[in-house]
What we know:
This protein has 189 residues and is an alpha/beta fold. Helix content is 46%, strand content 20%. It has one domain: Flavin prenyltransferase-like (Rossmann fold, 3-Layer(aba) Sandwich), CATH 3.40.50.1950.
Amino acid sequence: MLDNKNILLGVTGGIAAYKAVDLASKLKSAGANIKTVMTQNACRFVGPLSFEAVTGSSVFTTMWTPPEEYRIGHVALSDWANIVVVAPASANIIAKIANGICDDFLSTFLCASWSLAAQGKAIIAPAMNIKMWENPVVQRNIETIKKTGFQLAGPSQGRLACGTTGIGRMSEPKEILEVIETIASDIAK
Length: 189
Ligand SMILES: Cc1cc2nc3c(=O)[nH]c(=O)nc-3n(C[C@H](O)[C@H](O)[C@H](O)COP(=O)(O)O)c2cc1C
């Protein structure tokens, strides 16, 4: 289903980052080419090596990689990607997307990739504590990014890392994969 589709996986700093390794593995099994961009905070939760091992491709964690490795990274990646998925998406990255803030590789890449979002090819899988999710400012940011074309996968109800139960869990990798496959099949038509 995802044969030869170029998928950019963005990973931000939350407990659910470990689930993104499983998502990357599922995408790889489905035949996708995957490049991963991790925020510095994501790297506190999961090592880039996990994604490198699963995807067979190097992981971008900084804007400041030597130029011989690629053209201006965030622009080159946005040309390369057919589909973008951010999982887990922190409240912070959602706020950055909603407000056009570009202060690290992932947020700068997402700003450069607005046209993919406008074509319905960018997916955000939020994951956060219920109090954060229900914050009116977070909800306003969610509405803003939806208006610019980002598709939401989740969040779902269930047990949260903080010990409470409610909305805020990242959707399961299998569910996110289904959303990606639906977009990929639309691209193929
Ligand atoms: C243990 C722990 C778990 C966290 N889990 C989340 C989370 O699930 N969702 C979230 O939005 N922020 C979470 N945070 C806070 C983010 O890591 C923090 O807002 C950070 O600035 C996000 O940076 P990034 O968006 O650049 O990755 C957590 C922080 C800690 C210490």
